[in-house]
Structures are given as structure tokens and as C-alpha cells.
Design goal:
15 helices; alpha/beta
């Protein structure tokens, strides 16, 4: 029996097994049942049977010459054929290989998109705009329904885990999240009741982590605009018609809270006119949209900074509203109490403590000054006597300084002559007047 190079693995294993069996042929004199002759390989242990099979990584699968067994004698062909029919060969089905992530997918970070408008409830349309033919997507987890629409999670990278035995396990990162809202009227009321709470949901969680005393700054904006920020990256408004006045109100309502991207689909490709506070990224096709979100780090960073700026604006507005509400609550509490002032009651309650409070306040203002400078109540006799006694020391020191200064001046000759001359002049004038 000849073996050609196209022989399958199972055939090669079948041909290889009888060569080992014929090495120990059954003696003709010993009777054998059909069961024992059909399964001669089962006499060995399971470990020996498995170890006799060639491994996948061996050269057995890559060399056709080595697979050819030696030619045996013709009288053993019947025994070989009967043994091959009962041989059990295990096989292993390998899983499909994982898709290799791209360099852009590994550095993408978290991408969270909201999709509203005409066509947002069409899952195939949304998936075609963002994920179909996207080389950076390695796994799509499927759609999940929630109260107001659907959520689609996809991955651009794998997360590697190791179990207790050291075996590797790869799981999708699920770093791309697309939230589509159920079809509803695109007006101010639906935007306020449904879309705005979803946009502002991560605002509250991020605001709780930031110190209220922290003022808006470039460092804070860089922190919030990081690739792993929980804020939504952008909101995509789908439209299959030209610009209309009815869209102005909802767009003006949403642009202060999230970067808005207007995306046209359908036969009408009229470009939307520029509007204030719109996102700087304005794609005109699905290819441009995919490249900007998945393959342009500059565009994605710009969208994240725009989202961070809108969060900081919302934070300042909320703090201002809290301050106004606090002042209003204080005003309301004072007006509802309606206090009335009673002078007689006030005097009876505080007049007895007036002198004590004045003395305590003076000590609190400057407790280090000496006793002469302390404040006493002149209405109390003890305070008046203490104050008078405290003046004797400064008066004596002042008098002694004056006398010593006068004596020092008399020591000067010119001063003594001036004094004597003044004395003589005064005596002469007195005598003339008489």
C-alpha cells in the first residue's frame, strides 16, 4: 500500500498503528475471539496509547516520507486491516484565532457615543456607520436593550488574564460604547426629559470626585479629558433631510452640554450650516466619521477637550445655582420667623453683663499690654481706684525725667548765664515799675 503526500492525519495515524501491533503477532495455536482481535491496542494502558500518538508540533505532520510504515509481509495484511477498524483516534478542535488589534485600537481608550435623530433606532444603520468595515474593531459584543433605547459595546483591544494555573485568557476590552435612543420626536421636551439626564449622569459622578474649592484650570481640564474619562465623547444626530428650523431648538439645548456632530444619511447630502458651540469635527461621510473617531488622535483629543469644557461650564452653573438657593433659603427662613424686638427684655437680659463684656473685649483685643493701658469701667469704685494708682508710677517717672533734664541743661555755662541775665532783667523791670 503506497502513501501519497496528500494523505490526511487520520489516515496516517491508522496506518502507523498496525505496524506496532504486528511487532508482537498472535500465535496461531492460541484461539482469539473477534472482540480481542478487533481491539488489540486496548491491552496497553491509556497513557501508553496517548503517548504513542504524535504531537501536533512534531515533524510527523510536516514530512510525508516519515509517515510511510515499513512494508510488512503479505501474510499479515488481513490482521492489519482488522486492527485498523477498531482503533480510536482522539482529535482536538482549535478555536478560531483572535483578531489582532491595531496600533490605533490599542491606544484608543474609552469611546462613548450617543446617537439620536432619524435613524437612531435602526441598528444596522448605526452599526454600518461606525463599526462595519472598521479594521480597528476586534470584537462586537452585541446589542443590549435598556429603558430608553439600546447599547452596543465593541472592543478595539484584548485584556489578558491569567488563572491560578498560569493559563492565559483573553477577554474583549469593551472600550467602545454606542447608546442609541428609541425613535421619538426630536423636540425640546424629549431632549430635556431623556437625553440631558443621560448626558449629565457622569457629570454628577465626576463632580463628586473634585474638591469644590478647585477652580477651573488647564490641569483640571487635562485630567477630565483623559482617554479613560467617564464623560460621553460626542453626540451624533442622524438626519435624512435638509436643515430645518425645528432642529434649531434641540441642537441649541444640547450643544452647551456635549459636542454635537450632525451626520447626514440618505439621498440628500446637503451640508448643515455652521452653528455656535457646535463640535469642530464635521464629517460628511461614514468613512470620514470612522477615521476621525478611530484613526485620528488629534480629532478624538479635540472632542474630549470639548466635552471637558462643557463639564466645567456645567459645574460652575451648578455651584452658582447652589449659592442662589442657599441665600434664598436663608431669606425665606428669616421671613417666616417674623422676629419682634423687645427693648425692655433686651435691657433686662444684657444690661447686667455690659461692664463685664466690655472688659472682656478689651482684654481679647490686646491681652499683652500692661495694667496702665487696660480698660476699666469708671463706674466701679474698685476700677477707679486701681486706675488712679496705676497713674502714680508713670507720673513719678515723668517728673524725674523732667528734673534730670533740667539739671542737665543747667550744667551748660551759656544756659546759666542766660538764666542769671534773665533774673537780673526781671528784677530791674520790677524796680522800674514800682
Amino acid at each position: 500500500m503506497e502513501c501519497n503526500p496528500s494523505t490526511s492525519t487520520s489516515t496516517i495515524r491508522t496506518l502507523h498503528a498496525p505496524s506496532e501491533i504486528t511487532a508482537n503477532p498472535i500465535p496461531p495455536s492460541q484461539p482469539s475471539s473477534p472482540r480481542s482481535s478487533a481491539l488489540p491496542s486496548l491491552q496497553n494502558s491509556p497513557s501508553e496509547s496517548l503517548s504513542s500518538l504524535p504531537s501536533v508540533g512534531s515533524s510527523f505532520f510536516f514530512s510525508s516520507a516519515a509517515a510511510s510504515p515499513p512494508r510488512s509481509q503479505p501474510q499479515h495484511d488481513h490482521a492489519r486491516d482488522s486492527s485498523a477498524q477498531g482503533l480510536i483516534i482522539p482529535f482536538l478542535t482549535l478555536p478560531a484565532p483572535l483578531r489582532r488589534p491595531t496600533a490605533f485600537g490599542k491606544t484608543l481608550g474609552d469611546l462613548k457615543l450617543l446617537v439620536v435623530g432619524n435613524g437612531a433606532d435602526d441598528r444596522e444603520l448605526v452599526s454600518g456607520l461606525l463599526l462595519d468595515d472598521n479594521e480597528d474593531i476586534v470584537d462586537i459584543s452585541g446589542w443590549e436593550d435598556f429603558e430608553h433605547g439600546s447599547i452596543l459595546r465593541a472592543s478595539t483591544d484584548w485584556i489578558e488574564h491569567r488563572d491560578a494555573h498560569g493559563l492565559e485568557k483573553f477577554e474583549p476590552a469593551k472600550n467602545v460604547e454606542i447608546i442609541t435612543l428609541a425613535r421619538r420626536e426630536f423636540d425640546d421636551s424629549s431632549m430635556k426629559s431623556v437625553v440631558l439626564p443621560i448626558i449629565q449622569s457622569p457629570f454628577h459622578s465626576v463632580s463628586e470626585l473634585i474638591d469644590p474649592r478647585c477652580q477651573p484650570s488647564a490641569a483640571l481640564a487635562n485630567l477630565i479629558a483623559s482617554p479613560w474619562s467617564p464623560l460621553h465623547t460626542a453626540l451624533i444626530i442622524l438626519s435624512n433631510s435638509g436643515p430645518s428650523i425645528s432642529e434649531d431648538g434641540p441642537i441649541d439645548l444640547l450643544t452647551p452640554h456635549i459636542p454635537v456632530i450632525l451626520m447626514r444619511h440618505g439621498p440628500d447630502h446637503t451640508h448643515f450650516p455652521p452653528r455656535p458651540h457646535m463640535s469642530s469635527f464635521r464629517p460628511r461621510s461614514s468613512t470620514t466619521l470612522q477615521n476621525g473617531l478611530f484613526r485620528s488622535p488629534e480629532t478624538l483629543s479635540s472632542l474630549r477637550y470639548e466635552a471637558a469644557e462643557r463639564f466645567l461650564r456645567w459645574r460652575e452653573v451648578e455651584y452658582a445655582i447652589e449659592g442662589i438657593n442657599a441665600c434664598h433659603r436663608e431669606t425665606v427662613s428669616l421671613s417666616t420667623n417674623e422676629p419682634s424686638w423687645n427693648k425692655a427684655k433686651w435691657e433686662a437680659e444684657w444690661e447686667s453683663r455690659l461692664s463685664e463684656d466690655v472688659a472682656t473685649s478689651c482684654e481679647r483685643e490686646n491681652p499683652m499690654r500692661d495694667l496702665a493701658q487696660q480698660c476699666f469701667d469708671p463706674l466701679h469704685l474698685s476700677s477707679l481706684v486701681s486706675f488712679s494708682m496705676s497713674l502714680l508710677g508713670p507720673a513719678g517717672r515723668k517728673l524725674s525725667r523732667s528734673i534730670s533734664s533740667f539739671v542737665d541743661k543747667l550744667a551748660d555755662r551759656q544756659v546759666r548765664m542766660a538764666i542769671v541775665g534773665s533774673l537780673c532783667l526781671g528784677i530791674g523791670i520790677g524796680m522800674m515799675i514800682r
